[in-house]
Amino acid sequence: MRLSLPFRVHNRPLSGLRHYEKPLRKLAKPRYKGSVLCQPQKVIIEDAVRVVKAGDWVYLHHAASTPVDLLNALGKHVKKHDVRNVTTTSALLMGDIPFARDPEIYDYIRPKAIFISPAIRKAVNQGKADYIPLFLNESGRIFDDKRLPVDVAFLNLSPPDENGYCSLGVNCDMSSPAARNAKLIVASINESQPLTFGDSKIHVSHIDYLVSETETPISGVPKAVIKPEEEEIGRLIAENLVEDEATLQLGIGSIPDAVLSKLTHHKNLGLHTEMVSDGIISLMRNGNVNNSKKTLHPGKGVLAFAMGSKHFYDFIDGNEDFVFGSVGYTNDVDVIASNHRMTGINSAIEIDLTGQVVSDSIGTSIFSGFGGQVDFVYGSANGKDGRGKSIIAITSRTEKGHSKIVPIIKEGAGVVSTRAHVRYLVTEYGIADLWARSNLHRAYELIRVAHPGDREHLEKAAFKRFGALPRRDL
After folding, report:
1. Kind and range of the H or E element at 99?
2. Which residues are the active-site residues?
3. Residues 297-330: pLDDT tens digits?
């Protein structure tokens, strides 16, 4: 059977955690009623969404796997039948969904999300939807301990194999724990959803209502265009901070891709990350990333979700070099720290002169979310082999020419990684080493890697804030 593996990527065991309640489903095992194998009820999409009643909590598969067709049908259903007080839970939502284009939908449905996408960003900042600040490693627990109920889960699955096994495709993340706690599972089968392995496995007998086909392919994002300053950041990180045999964590976008593009001479790299994108393909094909030196799951790249181009999804489809785990495992700080030469690379919106990192907000406006930044910043820095590195990488200025290194963070902005978390800050102008540095030394390091046009202003602001000029400690 294609989904069989020599090991399973497990979540943290439920025993010993008293506040947890028993999940309703063991997704990787067929479900029986007595001695009879359960079968999904095959329905058209309009009938599938009718299971959602007033007051229900609906979990949404998200990111690339956002069930666009189910969500559009749900939007029509709640308005036509006046179904109100429905709450949806998710992370990043993508695609042409009613939240993005129908302001009336918020009279019926209130989205709650741990990561804010453009689809609901305006609604969140208008008080019509909710942002839940949360470490990504805890996002499975909120379902296991029923902090957030799951009356219905909307999933977007890969087609079943000959033994009835589907997969959660490119989004295992918090979707696996949400699904195992769902009272009802409504799933669409999507031919564009890659077959993936690990905790993404789900037997068709767990599906209560099955929509046999969906017209909308899973969402993709184009390969990032790398700017010259981002290319320089990639070079600085690759040449100075990434060792041979390092286990990597990166996100999506131009800076992660810039780093990956500079690793073509590295050997025996590994992958343990919450997510990955197109930039990894050439390194795996050329053998730079082979996972051979990993402490955990040697030979396998471990991740929670993926997002990229169709070319990338085709690369993942049926590829047993990738194993998908729920974020309760991939983002567990102890697991991260156990990896060989763990090297985490993350980004930020702004950082102040003491090293406080803002990543989820611009002033009082919520922009994105915590994601797994803190999980990997802390886990990487505290690698058990003493070789881990935690890196925050940013361009020195925004596209509008404003410094990302600031004297004081904007009023109302939220700190994601604290000044005590941050180890390395990299811009196109250099590498700032902040660990165990005084505030004045931190300011010195950060001003040194700021844009040259901003340094004088930052020095004056530092003197005003600290009562002394920034300096390198002896």
Report:
1. helix 98-101
2. 274
3. 999 999 999 999 999 999 999 999 999 999 999 9
